[in-house]
Amino acid sequence: MPLTADAKLFAEAARLGREILWLHTFGERFVEGRLAGPPKLPDGERPTIPAGGAIPSDATGFPDMIDYDPAKRRLKIGSGYIDQVDPRVWAYQVSGKQVLRQWFSYRKKNRERPQIGDRRKPSPLGDIQPDHWLPEYSTELLMCSTSLAVW
Description:
Layout: H1 7-24, E1 66-69, E2 74-77, E3 80-82, H2 87-91, E4 93-94, E5 97-98, H3 99-105, H4 135-150
Antiparallel strand pairs: 1-2, 2-3, 4-5
């Protein structure tokens, strides 16, 4: 890994790294100098799930798609949605992968992936999955949407 000999540049890179870890751990690591708890946006800018946008928590409403409507600033999850989602949150990528799509791929109804490389049958542990959208998924999604917007 290349490192700079410039002390100011190194200090700035370290500061950015601490901020990213703070955001990606929802405020659990590198808290010093910040308010305790997850990152927050000002009132009126926070992503919200309005009454009509609740993501169904029954097996029949288990979402299988995620999309974004930039005109409404709305993140659509199956038949539910989250409003006030900054477009940069939807566009945020790490190593060429869109973070929210990747996050959702592990929580959607159909978690099958195309086989790449090893053709052995996956572990039976992979078959142990919830049969509905869990409430903590909605909480995590709101926290992801907030953390990425803060960044």
